[in-house]
Every structure is written in structure tokens, then in C-alpha cells.
Design goal:
347 residues, alpha/beta, Rossmann fold, 2 domains, 5-stranded parallel beta sheet, 32% helix, 24% strand
């Protein structure tokens, strides 16, 4: 590889998502030993501000595009700019953060450029002139070292797998504006409006995650309102159970997660789902309440530094993964645990 690396910086309203700087940290690990260069590309409204900020991390060049066609995220016009920039710079490595937009742009770029994709990478190195990536396989049970013979190599970096590089405010540069590649009339997707999601700590960026499973609905003391059918009554119980989780998360300053079973049952919206078909998280502390620990869920939280599990079933698979496990009823254990955390954190 010649060491020319382009990093896609995912941003919103002039603020880069933290995992974008982690991807830049991964690029720095490769650019220095390869004797190459690291550039960044930022798209969307207020992208120039982020491009200017990127110079603090010692990059060689920053590109941005703040065209009106990119004010709202739409896959096609974004991908057109990414691929045009990649071709113009003849980059041999494209790095994307593992965000919703980052994943989508990585896939589209690989198709358009004819490159190969190494997703969800946790480590990178150059060996004998070849880029070697480490990534989890079999739902995180094994780590595989992989290489890619296609060019360019397209990589997505796992959240919190790489360190954000050190910033030096004295480092400055002049970003280069690139042009949009698709006129508004040719864009097939139109944004008609927005709906505000619930506020809270970002699940993918959180240092602490408190997550609930289907077991949160198993509280015999809860009596649903009269007139609800069986399905509605179950959803009501699940929603009450997640209030228990919300309270603990609020005390810890944590994000709220959920298993797929809890999401499918309608207890909590999909954006809280952790797992193979949800979000991948790597917090310092992951507290699993009423979660059995199916392999699909483990795939999304296995890399957490410390895992605490509370479950009635002593044979629940989550206990094999947890550093600390408590067999018992979350409704008896969590309230006093929350209160104890509150007392200690208020000191």
C-alpha cells in the first residue's frame, strides 16, 4: 500500500461524532509507518467548521462540501461526493466510522469504486506492505485477521476500539471545498420532515449502558389497567419495567439499551436495541437486566469492559459472559442498587 488514506468524518450540525475521531486515530496508526498521508472528508451543513477542527489532529489535508443538496442526509448525493473524492485523490484506503451513515457510505463507496470491505475492525497494522485488519467473527467469539486484495480497501472501525488522537490547537490549515456531484433534480429521495427522538445519552458513545430484556415485564405485582387485551397488557408491563431501568440509568448517567426480544415485544423503540441487528456498544460498564443473553445480543455488547448481569435463570447464557452475576428478581435487586448508587454518587 502507498499509505494514502481518506477518512470520512460523520458530523451533524457542525459537531463531529466522537467515533469519527476514533477512525482518524486508526488512520494515524497506518499513515505514519507507511510513510503516507491522511486526509479527511466532511459533508453537510456546517462541515467547514469540522474540517478546520480536523487539522488539530495532524492531518495533511481536509476536504468539505457544504452544498445545499447535502443539508439533509441522503445516501446517493453523499456517496457521489465520497466516490468522486476517492477517485480524485487515488486513495488506497478509505476509513469510515461505524455509524448508520458511515456503514451506508462504506458499502456504497465499495460498490462504486470496486473495492473490498473489511467491516467492524478493532485493530489495524501493516505487515510486509499489506494491510492486516482484526475483526470479530462468529458473534464476537473469535477474532480473525484478514487482508483485502481489492483496491481501494474500505474499512469501518468499531466504536471505542481505537483511541482518539491527541489534538494540538496550534495546528491549523485551510480546508478545500469540493463540489457536489448530483444536482437536486436527480436525487430520488426527498426529506419531508423530522420527528424528534427521545433525548438521552447516546448509546454508541456511552461509558455506561443499562439494558433490559423481556424479563423486565415479569413483575407479578404489576396489574395492568382494565380493558387491555393480552398483548397490550404485556406491553404495559414491559414499559413499566423499563422505568426501573431508566431510573438506574439516570443515576449513573448511562444510556438505555435493550435486547431484540424487548424491542420486538414493543416495550421500547428500536433505536435502543443492542445486538447483531441493532447497535454495537463497547462501554466501560454494561448492566444487563432480565436479558438471557442470546448470541445475537452478545454480538453487540461482548466487547464491554465490565459486564454485570441480573437474571432469575441461573443457566442464562449472559452469565457466561458477565464478570459479575446475580441470580434473582430485578424488581427486588435493582431498586436498592439504584438507591445505593445515588447515595454514593451524591457524596
Amino acid at each position: 500500500m502507498n499509505g494514502k488514506i481518506l477518512v470520512y468524518i460523520d458530523q451533524f450540525k457542525g459537531e463531529a461524532l466522537p467515533v469519527s475521531w476514533e477512525a482518524l486515530g486508526a488512520a494515524g496508526m497506518l499513515g505514519a509507518p507507511a510513510g503516507g498521508s491522511v486526509s479527511v472528508l466532511v459533508l453537510g451543513a456546517e462541515s467547514r467548521r469540522v474540517a478546520e477542527q480536523a487539522f488539530q489532529f495532524g492531518i495533511q489535508q481536509a476536504y468539505y462540501c457544504d452544498d445545499a443538496t447535502l443539508d439533509d442526509y441522503r445516501p446517493d448525493p453523499y456517496a457521489a461526493v465520497v466516490t468522486a473524492a476517492a477517485r480524485a485523490g487515488a486513495y488506497d484506503v478509505l476509513l469510515f466510522p461505524t455509524t448508520v451513515r458511515g456503514r451506508e457510505q462504506a458499502a456504497l463507496s465499495a460498490v462504486e469504486l470496486g473495492g473490498g470491505v473489511m467491516p467492524d475492525v478493532t485493530a489495524l497494522e501493516v505487515s510486509d506492505g499489506r494491510l492486516v485488519a482484526t475483526r470479530p467473527v462468529y458473534a464476537g467469539k473469535l477474532l480473525a485477521e484478514v487482508v483485502c486484495d481489492a483496491a481501494p480497501v474500505v474499512i469501518t472501525t468499531r466504536v471505542r476500539a481505537f483511541k482518539k488522537p491527541s489534538a494540538d490547537p496550534a495546528l491549523k490549515g485551510e480546508p478545500v471545498r469540493v463540489e457536489a456531484a448530483v444536482p437536486e433534480g436527480d436525487i430520488r429521495i426527498k426529506v419531508t420532515g423530522y420527528r424528534q427522538a427521545e433525548a438521552g445519552v447516546s448509546l454508541t458513545d456511552a461509558n455506561v449502558v443499562v439494558a433490559g430484556g423481556r424479563g423486565v415485564a415479569n413483575n407479578p405485582a404489576l396489574s395492568p389497567p382494565a380493558g387491555l387485551d393480552e398483548k397490550a397488557a404485556e406491553i404495559w408491563r414491559g414499559e413499566q419495567g423499563f422505568k426501573l431501568i431508566d431510573e438506574l440509568a439516570a443515576v449513573l448517567g448511562a444510556a438505555v439499551g435493550a435486547s431484540r426480544a424487548a424491542v420486538d415485544a414493543g416495550y421500547i423503540p428500536y433505536e435502543h436495541q443492542v445486538g447483531q441487528t441493532g447497535k454495537i456498544v463497547s462501554p466501560d460498564l454494561y448492566i444487563a437486566l432480565g436479558i438471557s443473553g442470546a448470541i445475537q445480543h452478545q454480538a453487540g455488547m461482548r466487547s464491554s469492559k465490565v459486564i454485570v448481569a441480573i437474571n432469575k435463570d441461573p443457566d442464562a447464557p449472559i452469565f457466561k459472559l458477565a464478570r459479575f452475576g446475580v441470580v434473582g428478581d430485578i424488581y427486588q435487586i435493582v431498586p436498592p442498587l439504584t438507591e445505593e448508587f445515588r447515595k454514593r454518587l451524591e457524596k
